[in-house]
Design a protein that fits this description.
mainly alpha; 2 helices; elongated
Length: 78
């Protein structure tokens, strides 16, 4: 019985910590995104590509972090 309660407590604690980390990370991503919106709209108008496609690509490649570098190539964020 003790093992079951301990397992439940550990699961709850792990979930709570993970949820807090995801919430903080989401807020950071949202702040970086808000700073990029004017640039995304400008690029969308200039190149005729949808803003949604540009936003999705930036999110997928660098999560809106401009200084991210790929460790095996010269690729950088944004």
């Amino acid at each position: 019985m003790f093992r079951v309660i301990l397992a439940l407590l550990l699961t709850f604690f792990t979930y709570t910590v993970a949820a807090a980390n995801y919430e903080r990370e989401f807020k950071d991503i949202e702040k970086r995104y808000q700073r990029m919106v004017p640039h995304i709209i400008k690029l969308s108008d200039h190149f005729g590509v949808s803003a949604e496609l540009i936003t999705t690509t930036i999110y997928k490649e660098s999560t809106f972090r401009p200084h991210v570098k790929h460790r095996k190539s010269s690729a950088t964020g944004l």
